[in-house]
Predict the 3D structure of the following.
Amino acid sequence: MPNALTIWDGNLLMEIQHLVIRGGLTPVMKFITHLGDKGIIWIALIILMLCFKKTRKVGIIAMTALIISFVINNLMLKNLVARTRPYDMFAGVQRLVEKQSDWSFPSGHSAASFVTAVVLFHELPRKYGVPALTLAFLIAFSRLYVGVHYPLDVLAGAISGTIIAILVCKAFEQYNRNKEGLRSGTHR
């Protein structure tokens, strides 16, 4: 039997789906959601950045953040919370893609998308960061559209990814400051 929060979250998901699902939009949203499968779009971007000296540092930061996010969200939190997918709890949820093989909370697609996009937004010019964040929002929203996550799953994934990205960026900044201090002899 679902608790009050799950009932509220499930009802909110069904309302969102009722408002946004349209036949012509469904293939687009399925395509967008599959871009996030196994973090493939973000892994491809990271590999591309690692190939060029100019973006290698950002690629390393993004790769580090994505790995940390995967461990925290997909390996730890999903199994700790063990939240059942909404389509298995509510008959009114329309599942528009295949059944998922893991737990619902938090959304791994959302976490991977936001952890990588926030790193890109933080480390690269806005002309790259803004499209990355836009794609992250679209992938996260697509998880609601296709009915495989509750709104709170997506929100938690986005927040978690954002926090991890900021912390990893700050850690790399501190590491570089310390390294420069050692080189210049001003480090205490």
User: Anything to note?
Assistant: The mean pLDDT is 95. The radius of gyration is 18 Å. The longest helix spans residues 151-184. DSSP finds eight helices and no strands in the chain.
